[in-house]
Task: inverse folding
């Protein structure tokens, strides 16, 4: 494909509107939708240090997207740390990778929240955050406030096109590919993990 972004619906999103690539008429989360409650709030632990742990996968997530920080409320303000890797908090794929290294070097090498193994999540890890009953954004916004209703980079390259990598769009929870070179997507970092949910795609 010659387009900048290629979209693939995630098959576990069984709403007809999503499977047709249409945006559902939702505001925030709708408990009445006929969709499985795959990631209820009880699945997550707020660690009180701007990180969230997923008890199902063992993954620890930065609560805020890169470029945002917590002041009066969670993820409510621009990060006071310099952001040399991004423009308006958007990253290219390579700069997203570099961002993880820079976060691990924060605080004189002690990293973020006392950890130095932050990384860009792979596509399955990132897809595990999708809240299937939510849209705009399709994530638990009470746990991950101010998540952009747009694409987030994964570390997973697209095997059919070396210039692209996989992206999760958290507007309605779709799997996409995007060209690595463009400052086009946002970043949420992760660490740890012992089990990654699997998703099905055409590749």
Result:
């Amino acid at each position: 494909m010659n387009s900048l972004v290629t979209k693939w619906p995630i098959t576990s999103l069984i709403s007809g509107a999503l499977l047709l690539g249409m945006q559902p008429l939702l505001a925030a989360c709708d408990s009445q939708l006929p969709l499985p409650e795959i990631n209820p709030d009880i699945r997550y632990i707020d660690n009180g240090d701007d990180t969230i742990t997923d008890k199902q996968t063992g993954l620890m997530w930065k609560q805020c997207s890169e470029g945002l920080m917590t002041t009066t409320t969670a993820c409510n303000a621009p990060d006071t740390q310099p952001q040399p890797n991004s423009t308006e908090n958007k990253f290219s794929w390579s700069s997203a990778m570099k961002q993880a290294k820079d976060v691990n070097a924060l605080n004189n090498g002690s990293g973020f929240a006392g950890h130095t193994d932050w990384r860009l999540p792979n596509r399955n890890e990132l897809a595990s955050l999708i809240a299937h009953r939510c849209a705009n954004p399709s994530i638990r916004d009470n746990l991950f406030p101010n998540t952009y209703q747009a694409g987030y980079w994964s570390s997973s390259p697209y095997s059919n096109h070396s210039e692209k990598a996989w992206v999760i769009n958290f507007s309605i929870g779709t799997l996409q590919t995007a060209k690595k070179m463009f400052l086009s997507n946002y970043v949420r970092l992760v660490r740890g993990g012992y089990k990654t949910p699997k998703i099905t795609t055409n590749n």
About this structure: Confidence is low (pLDDT under 50) at residues 1-27. Residues 5-29+37-192 form one domain. The CA atoms of residues 161 and 179 lie 9 Å apart. The chain has one domain: 5-29+37-192.
